[in-house]
């Protein structure tokens, strides 16, 4: 296997040294060079031709976003943003993703973090995923993805949804991880505002990021998207995004209402966890559940999809054709529990038909 050359860009000498040590702890990676600011990063990226670039966002002179735009425009290499886990950091990170960044990794301790070892595995795996990413696949996605978003938001009044029960609408439970913040926009904006389902979405993401992410989804989709909060009543035509640091589960009351719960137990590698969310949704909605597993590392969601499959629901896995990281979907496919396998650009149409009762 050819070693992956990484260019590190960060204005902190300590962070550059820390990242170099973490990256080179994996025998398949090596640091081809380091840069102290955006201008330095662009110059070295042009000369060194790295396979992947890690980019700090806040730097003097040419900042990370400006450098990113140049690197993306010149198609030099995929870029992973290394950002602060703050509300402000979240907003800037999503801007970077929209500008073409491959993915991001959060600095656990802020701008300069001595605790990067806690995200070492995530960083290494994302670098490897970025190095495997084929720019031609991006062109293919742009050609094949839906070109037209569907109807505008449906205004649902409280009187329309009071007393709704699981017999009135379906549940769509989506689990997604690495590559998800971009891929999910190939699905959600193309769901109609009158979708006869509530959507439960788990994207592996830090606590300060999910609120901003929910706002971005809400602006781009006909459905109403909110960060899931304990006590919310589940309504059709809504997307409930799992809150970072909490699980997303449900409770059905004696009068048939379905309530959001956000427990912090069980402790798991991912919080929110796709497995925990999907099992909870399947328990309440049973055969009216549509499970979807998309791009991501590992196998979170596989057990939850099995639960949906056993409950008589429909299970959909993103195909290798479109998955940026074919880890989580592969696990579901190899277990033989994916009733439908489809590329990301076909999933919205599939979900619309399933929610409207066309199995």
Keywords:
359 residues; alpha/beta; Rossmann fold; seven-stranded parallel β-sheet; five-stranded parallel β-sheet; 13 helices; 14 strands; 35% helix
> Sheet bearing the most strands, described?
7 strands, parallel
Look at the structure and give the CATH class of the largest domain: Alpha Beta
Overall mean confidence score, pLDDT? 90
Could you tell me the radius of gyration in angstroms?
21 Å
Counted up, domains total 2
Give the DSSP E fraction (strand runs of 2 or more residues).
15-25%
| Alpha-carbon distance between the two ends | 44 Å
Strand line-up across the major sheet:
8-9-7-6-12-13-14
The helix fraction, in percent, is 25-40%
By oligomeric state, this entry counts as single chain
Low-confidence stretches: 155-166
The fold-level CATH name of the largest domain is Rossmann fold
CATH superfamily of the largest domain: Methylesterase CheB, C-terminal domain
The number of E-state strands comes to 14
Shape annotation: elongated
CATH 2nd-level architecture of the largest domain = 3-Layer(aba) Sandwich
**N-to-C series of helices and strands:** EHEHEHEHEHHHEHEHEEEEHEHEHEH
């Amino acid at each position: 296997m050819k070693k992956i050359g990484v260019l590190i860009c960060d204005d902190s000498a300590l962070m550059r040294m820390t990242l170099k040590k973490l990256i080179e702890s994996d025998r398949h990676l090596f640091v081809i060079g380091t840069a102290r600011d955006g201008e330095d990063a662009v110059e070295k990226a042009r000369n060194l031709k790295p396979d992947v670039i890690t980019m700090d966002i806040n730097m003097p002179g040419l900042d990370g976003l400006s450098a990113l735009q140049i690197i993306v425009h010149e198609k030099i290499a995929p870029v992973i943003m290394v950002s602060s886990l703050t509300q402000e950091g979240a907003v800037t990170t999503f801007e970077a993703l929209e500008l073409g960044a491959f993915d991001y990794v959060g600095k656990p301790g802020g701008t300069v973090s001595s605790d990067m070892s806690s995200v070492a595995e995530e960083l290494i795996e994302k670098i490897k995923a970025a190095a495997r990413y084929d720019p031609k696949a991006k062109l293919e996605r742009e050609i094949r993805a839906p070109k037209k978003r569907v109807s505008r938001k449906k205004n649902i009044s409280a009187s329309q949804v009071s007393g709704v029960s699981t017999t009135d609408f379906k549940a769509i439970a989506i689990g997604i991880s690495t590559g998800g913040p971009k891929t999910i926009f190939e699905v959600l904006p193309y769901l109609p505002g009158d979708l006869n389902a509530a959507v439960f979405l788990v994207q592996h993401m830090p606590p300060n990021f999910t609120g901003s992410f929910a706002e971005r989804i809400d602006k781009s989709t006909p459905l109403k998207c909110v960060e899931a909060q304990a006590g919310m009543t589940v309504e059709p035509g809504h997307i409930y995004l799992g809150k970072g640091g909490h699980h997303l589960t449900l409770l059905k009351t004696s009068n048939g209402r379905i309530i959001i719960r956000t427990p912090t137990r069980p402790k798991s590698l991912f919080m929110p966890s796709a497995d925990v969310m999907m099992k909870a949704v399947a328990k309440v909605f049973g055969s009216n559940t549509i499970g979807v597993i998309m791009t991501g590392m590992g196998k979170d969601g596989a057990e939850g999809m099995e639960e949906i499959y056993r409950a008589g629901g429909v299970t959909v896995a993103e195909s290798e054709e479109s998955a940026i990281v074919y880890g989580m979907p592969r696990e579901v496919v190899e277990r033989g529990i994916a009733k439908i396998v489809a590329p990301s650009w076909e999933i919205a149409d599939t979900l619309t038909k399933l929610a409207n009762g066309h199995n």
